[in-house]
Design a protein that fits this description.
Layout: H1 4-16, H2 23-39, E1 66-71, E2 74-79, H3 85-91, E3 101-103, E4 115-119, E5 121-132, E6 136-141, E7 149-153, E8 158-169, E9 172-185, E10 190-195, E11 205-217, H4 221-224, E12 242-244, E13 255-258, E14 262-268, E15 277-281, H5 285-291, E16 294-300
Parallel strand pairs: 1-4, 6-10, 6-11, 11-15, 12-14
Antiparallel strand pairs: 1-2, 3-4, 5-8, 7-10, 8-9, 11-16, 12-15, 13-14, 13-16
Length: 302
């Protein structure tokens, strides 16, 4: 291995044949070669430290790009060089619910500065049992002594099951909607009869009566003809509590209270039932015959 003096001699001595060198120039060349020999190849900074943008022992190594994930009220920074939004969330340990929303979409690629936003969405179904209060229907009877009240029918509250869907985004309620209702128990309005001269000023629905000519029938062929099948024109089973009316006076389906007969529903028509006539149903022909023909007070309950 040649020494430093030998390398200098090979470079400097042949050049003297071409032109004479001054001692100062020889010293400068020698100093430059000495510095190169000591430092060796490479571009290093002071004390051999890595330059900015480099990793110790790995020149030119760059840090991966940074992305931001906003989820569950926190911002998380993640170093990832490539991949999709779904892969980034998986790497961050974020598990999505079935209704959660993500922007950008899961299949979108990520890059430097990408911001991923996760919105937590939840839906809860609430079932409520609600009481439906009954009303009191007051029948104004002019023949009843003032101050006297007769209980015709006891009232009963109804029950309704209501289904409500509640939507939340990031824990805050955004929508509440009733999706269905079902009746668990029908309500029954109370019915009371008051003297017309002493009706209450509030607290009830007052119904006044119609004076009607009442006759009676039974579901059999004697009353209804040979083609009678036991059902009315609107599909109700004929008998007590179902009466025939003129729909121009009392609409079919109307609930009634009939003096001396009780509660009923207008559920049938008849060729002879016109105007203020009403035909009251009884289980047997004998009972219908015994009832005969009367003038009655008829109260429309609805």
């Amino acid at each position: 291995m040649k020494t430093l003096s030998e390398w200098v001699a090979r470079i400097v001595l042949p050049s003297r044949a071409l032109f004479p060198l001054r001692p100062v120039m020889i010293v400068m060349i020698f100093a430059a070669l000495a510095v190169a020999f000591i430092t060796g190849p490479g571009d290093r900074g002071a004390c051999g430290s890595a330059q900015p943008g480099q990793v110790e022992g790995k020149p030119e190594a760059l840090l991966p790009p940074q992305i931001t994930i906003l989820a569950d009220g926190e911002a998380q920074t993640l170093a990832i060089s490539r991949g999709t939004v779904a892969e980034a969330l998986s790497q961050a340990g974020i598990v999505l619910g079935p209704l959660d929303r993500v922007e950008p979409s899961l299949d979108q690629p990520v890059g430097p500065g990408t911001e991923i936003r996760v919105t937590r969405v939840e839906m809860k179904v609430l079932y409520e049992e609600i009481s439906e209060p009954y009303q009191t229907i007051i029948l104004a009877n002019p023949d009843l002594r003032p101050g006297l009240v007769e209980k015709v029918l006891e009232g009963r509250s109804g029950k309704i099951c209501r289904e409500t869907r509640i939507w939340k985004k990031d824990g805050a309620e955004t929508l509440r909607e009733v999706t269905s209702t079902s009746r668990l128990r029908e309500k029954i309005d109370a019915v009371e009869m008051w003297g017309a001269a002493s009706l209450p000023s509030r607290g009830g629905i007052i119904r006044r009566h119609l004076s009607m000519a009442a006759t009676a029938y039974d579901p059999g062929p004697i009353s209804c003809g040979k083609y009678a099948d036991g059902y009315t024109s609107i599909g109700l089973k004929a008998g007590r509590g179902v009466v025939a009316v003129d729909p121009r006076v009392i609409p079919l389906g109307t609930r009634l209270y009939i003096e001396g007969y009780g509660l009923a529903v207008a559920g049938d028509v008849g060729s002879a039932i016109k105007g203020r006539r009403i035909d009251l149903g009884f289980p047997t022909y004998r009972e219908a015959l015994q009832y005969g023909r009367r003038t009655v007070k008829v109260y429309l309950l609805e």
